[in-house]
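Recall that a protein's primary structure is simply its ordered list of amino acids. Everything else, from secondary elements to tertiary packing, is in principle encoded there. The following example makes that idea concrete.
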Amino acid sequence: MVKREDVGKLSEEALSDLASSLSGFYQKQFDEPMSEFRARLIVEYLNAVVGTKHYNKAIEDAEAFFNDKLLDLGATLMKNDPGSSKDY
């Protein structure tokens, strides 16, 4: 199980991969180098700010999805159970 304080944290490997990708993207787009240090700072910032918003939105979407399924399940059980008290 993931500890609450570790939710949203990226591994060192993931941070390095993202920083390298950002550095390459920057080089391609602006024809200027970006140091791995700067790229990593930007990745860490974006993960903290944007990542948190994406994570929270994903949790809200999952909650809504499962709540809808639970409502459907309850309706299905009542409709299909001939011995249910809802039949009278």
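The CA atoms of residues 10 and 47 lie 8 Å apart. The chain has a mean pLDDT of 85.
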